[in-house]
Amino acid sequence: MFFRLALIVLASSFSLHAAEAAEQPRHASDATGSDDPFVAEVLPFLNKYCGDCHTGEYAQSGVDLTKLVTHAEAQRNPSRWNQIRGLIELGAMPPPDHDPLPSPADREAMADRIYQLVNRIECGMDNDAGRVTIRRLNAFEYDNTIHDLFAIDLRPSELVGFPSDDVGNGFNNQGEVLNVSPLLLEKYLNAAEEISNRIIEEDLTRIKQSEAPEEIDKNPDKATKLDGPPRLLTVWPSEQQTSREAAAELFDRLLPRIYRRPAESWEVERVVSLVEAAMARGLDYPQAIGVGLQAALVSPHFLFRVEPATSDATDATRTQQPVSQFALANRLSYFLLASMPDGDLMRAAADDQLIEADDLESQASRLLSQQGARNLVEGFFAQWLGLGGLQEASPNERKFRAWNSKLRAAMREETIRVCEEMVVKDYSLLDLLQTEFTYVNPRLAELYGITFEGHDPETLFREGPGFPYDKRREKTSRRTGLYRMEDRWRKVPLPEGRRGILTHASILTMTSNPSSTSPVKRGKWVLETLLGDPPPPAPPSVPGLEETAAGAEDLPIRKQLELHREDPSCASCHQRMDPIGFALQNFDSMGIWRDENDGHPIDASGKLDDKPFDGPMDLIEILSDSEEKIARNFAERLMVYALGRGLRPADHCAIDQIVQQAGEKEYRISAFIYGVVRSDPFRMRRSSIPSTTARNPSSNARTSHR
Amino acid sequence: MAQLKSIDRRLFLRGAGTAIALPLLDAMGPATAAANVLGKVASQGTSASPPVRLAWVFFPNGCHYKGWEPEGEGTDWTPSKALQPLQTVRDELLVLTGLSHENAKSLGDGPGDHARSAAAFLTGAHPFKTAGSRIRAGVSIDQVAAEMLRGETRLPSLELGTERGKSAGNCDSGYACSYSNNISWRSPTQPAPKEVNPRLAFERLFGGDAAEEGDREQRHFLRRSILDLVAHQSRTLRTQLGKEDRLKVDEYLQSVRDVERRVEQMADAKVVRPADAKRPPAEVDDIQQHIRLMYDLMLLAFRTDSTRVATFMLGNEGSSRKYKNIGVEGAHHELSHHRHKQENIDQIEKIDRYLVAEYARFIGLMRDTPEGEGTLLDNSMVLYGGAISDGNKHTHDNLPVLLAGRGGGQVTPGRHLRYADDPPMTNLFISMLNAANLQAETFGDSTGRLNNLKA
After folding, report:
1. pLDDT per residue as tens digits for the range B346-393
2. CB contact under 8 A, A134 and B244
3. Do B242 and A131 touch (CB under 8 A)?
4. Complex ipTM
5. By CA distance, what is B130's nearest residue in A?
6. Contact assessment for residue B180 and residue B120, using Cβ atoms and an 8 Å cutoff
7. Does B130 have pLDDT greater than 90?
8. Rounded to whole angstroms, what are the CA distances from A126 to A358, A361, A650, A680?
9. pTM for the model
10. Does B327 lie at the interface with A, CB-CB under 8 angstroms?
């Protein structure tokens, strides 16, 4: 308390100083009577309750809340205003010793008002559909696309080592964040070279085999591996056609697949010229075709998902226009498959069969049933659930003897498989919390303390290939070797005490510290990932756990957190985070069930939103009541992934609709997916010309040329 | 934030002609021969003096600062616990204490010190807090130097690391992962990603097997033709796009040009792999081996004058690596918040000392590599540091900083320099550039120079 008092004294002397030092040209108090809703409704509150400390050049923590902020400005910085909103709502700010203090009802009303103003707009018929920044294929999409182009399993991104794709808005497919660097471009060149060499080599073998089938009998292995027609060298020069003509025919067919849209004849022509130039340098036909292929694979038309304006179809009176048919085919395919559109989808685009929302829904349904949900789960679910965090998890191996990279991978695979089944079998989203089945391999079965196909997993380990022969009879808790049937996965009922994803070892491990569980991290994960309601970060002036007295002593975590919550500014957020974590305390840092910790029995009871609970099952029931919140968050995350951009206030009009319609269908996963692909933000884009200019008859920007 | 504007892009090293210096490739050859082949001309016109190399080595998570700061000042200083491993090279480096990174502090943005620290470390800029859109830090000092030296070497700069970028959603309290994963920034909005695979880094420097087998000239011709074609495509494409899309295509085009230039230079320079250099393995499990390989690549790159600017991230900021090779079982980041528990502090001090020891090894190798009339280290400045001082509390003043090398005679090592009033780290960067004959007045949040690098 002394600390805070000192700060306030300091701050007020600073603000005096600030008042002398500089004029605040745009101060909120200058603008009373404004009809800007943010200025009129929010700023007076901030002036009254926050202005003492947060004002002027020397504002507390550098946060000046008395500066004039218009509604439009606030909407441009939602993360800042949502943080401020959260602190007001939870009672963390203004601090409890501030005078005056808003009443709880005032806090709630103001938080709600800020939420509405910052995150929402009035929904109409012609909402701004937003603009997606041109998206580079990320490494996952690149590998999948190469796979689908040539039916080849090469994973070039690993082969030549693409630098990692940066992540924005929680996903690694966000246009604004995906950069191209010289390093990456070099990698693209190398990858293209590897791909073309490999395909040409295989194609030549294929051709040789088909011409001399007797060779196959001598070498059966190779024959089965390289079955079928050539992937690349489909056209050859002959007496009837020159190599130039052959190359033209070849790329005339191939280029539209690589660019994922029809190719102009001059585009084909340029690649053919390159092939010719290569042949003039002495390369043979296959190698020269390879050079042409490399150029196509380094082309911006392959590496980027270009969405050209649909110029002719623009209705200049609207703020949004449809995305072109081929761009839409790409949006759909990369959303659901993280790869290029297949032949059917391309034909549909060519025939203008992707115009109606129903068309998109039936294509989406077709793609998922034909191609499965693995890539959607790897691309979307894994990132939404934050499974990448598992890579960072590092349980202390002295304490957790079974921990190693194989267990890490198995934990991830379990959650992936469960999500995959949920999509394919079209479960309700809420089943994510409630499923009573899961998938295990022997390693995971042992962790969960269940048998595997009637075997004791420990025996399977001792019989496994990795177990040192001479130690076969010895006791060892390390699990570095392989189990017998290590790669076999079985659907099993979850053991007692476990239900749904919250009790998966993956989630429990990645929300733990290496040596101890962290109720705070687990609580935060639930609030942030499941409910989409992350606790605001601690205000900068609030000390972290390690700096308070609570952290200094060797107290049980529950006791430490109790002390922590005695500080009112900590309490506001931890009141919500900690109980969730306490309910999961029966699971240790690797997700293994425990009844006691360091000799103390586990106390997994508490209260969440005034509802008492004891143990994980109660918690899951309480959380399941927040179905709308869970559904809304899921819809929002799915939309961010599908669009490749962060959400804007206008997008909430679409989200509202998706959530409502999904609700009518028991929140089935398909209802969300179809909802997204049917939505305006998915099918539309902002018109190139702002509607105001477009309406102006004197503006002829469209016809004038630079 | 227009740091670049305030920097005179004029390059003092110009006028040396465009011939590519062919470095001495048979390693520890006679020093005089090295002088001839490394004969890039510096501004003073001493035609034989070798170029100055600049490197920045970054370590994450701060340190246990009480165990870092040495006692005594000037030439009379006693290494602290963390700096013990420097004994063998103490006359080759400066210990600088008291520097700060104001822009790594919260400044009203709340938590996220790790992300801010990596982002501010070489940029001196306060990163914009965002989980995705409008990512912005600043141009980093190594990229400024690389831009000034563009064309002098095959690679304008080399960015190395040992940890791939994190793939988790946001890396630190609402900051996009770009901030924690990178220290080099080509532009305020575009990080320069690092190479973490030693074999691939090696091949990037000296070519892979394919390059040796095939007809080099043929290959260069084809690559040039491919690049030419895609550059043409992207120029056409950009005219059809809106502003933001155009920026992305411009980034692409800029990268194409960079690689084109490199291909040209590769073709001219007849890169030969140094005889004593073994091709590194593709997979490295052992962290010690990984760190050493990356340092060795940096040494090799400098020795062969393949580049004059390098950065090396020993770990991503906030790294949870376990240094099992030195018996530390806990995760680095978790241990750095030691909560004043002695057992945690002991572990953190072990890591501090270990990373300094690996740096000392590298500095030793630089010193043992003859060049001109001195050593490679004499013609280098290799900074070691981070933008968090006390890892437990996330402070950004009193940063742990070492600077090895003589910068071609502009630095007098062997001293502990203590600065009062928290001068910004960027002041040191300005002085480093100036010592390398690169003109710079201001950078990031700099307020001047550190004038006493030379005694």
Report:
1. 999 999 999 999 999 999 999 999 998 999 999 999 999 999 999 988
2. yes
3. yes
4. 0.84
5. A79
6. no
7. no
8. 20, 22, 10, 9
9. 0.84
10. no
